[in-house]
Write a structure and sequence with these properties.
By secondary structure, this protein is an alpha/beta fold. It is built from 9 helices and 9 strands. The longest helix is centred in the C-terminal third of the chain and has 15 residues. It is globular, with a radius of gyration of 17 Å.
């Protein structure tokens, strides 16, 4: 059966929020398995945000990174990553074994490598200023948008990040989408797979926070970006 045919067959059984195959993994990972007919042999690791001065390691709690409208980046990241994996026409539907990593940054890096993930996507929302009533009321769309960060001069990371901007960035309400080189982020230089560090939009303006919260509507675009990188239909 072709990959496309496998997707069509699986789609008939997909309902919102229903896993095709789901199991607990190491270090708080949750692993979603596609059906055998849809599986494309690729593994995607979605790394949930954990903000802490010591990265929560060993054993420290993640600190909430708050935004407009009650946005909590850590909680949002986990919910959004789960949606990217398993909601509707997401990554699992398209045949990817998908792992949602909810440990610390270092745990997620280790688990991504241990599972042979070919694609590694940290899932984040962005910030530019402290959250206040005035900052949340801003409406200048050019100041916000999707950032896809990559290690400098890494052609594969640049290519994946380009697809993130082309697919996710065209949906976000901010228009200041950017490919951003970053040399200091371990999730860009310590993972074996091809990484793109997704800052989906800024949570420091009301429109951005509302769009971020609507991840079930646009989350399939992450799968579309991964498909584009791997040249899948």
């Amino acid at each position: 059966m072709s990959l496309f045919a496998g997707r069509v067959a699986v789609a008939a059984g997909v309902v919102a929020g229903a896993a095709i195959g789901k199991q607990a993994g190491a270090g708080a990972d949750v692993i979603y398995h596609p059906t055998s007919t849809a599986a494309n042999g690729k593994t995607v690791y979605l790394s949930v945000a954990c903000h802490d001065t010591n990265d929560g390691y060993p054993g420290g709690a993640c600190i909430p990174n708050s935004g407009c409208g009650g946005h909590n980046e850590n909680n949002w990241s986990k919910a959004a990553a789960t949606s990217f994996a398993d909601y509707g026409y997401g990554l699992v539907w398209a045949g990817y074994k998908t792992i949602v990593g909810t440990g610390t940054r270092d745990q997620n890096i280790a688990n991504s490598n241990a599972n042979g993930a070919g694609t590694h996507i940290p899932v984040h929302s962005n910030a530019d200023v402290a959250v206040t009533g005035a900052s949340c009321a801003r409406t200048g769309t050019g100041d916000f948008g999707t950032w896809a960060m990559h290690y400098p001069n890494d052609s594969n990371q640049i290519a994946l990040s380009y697809h993130m901007l082309a697919r996710v960035g065209t949906s976000s309400l901010g228009t200041g989408d950017q490919l951003v080189p970053r040399s200091q982020l371990p999730e860009l230089f310590s993972v074996d797979g091809v990484a793109s560090y997704l800052e989906a939009d800024f949570h420091t303006w009301n429109a951005g926070s509302k769009w971020l919260a609507d991840y079930n509507t646009w989350g399939w675009r992450v799968r579309w970006a991964v498909d584009g990188f791997w040249d899948f239909p």
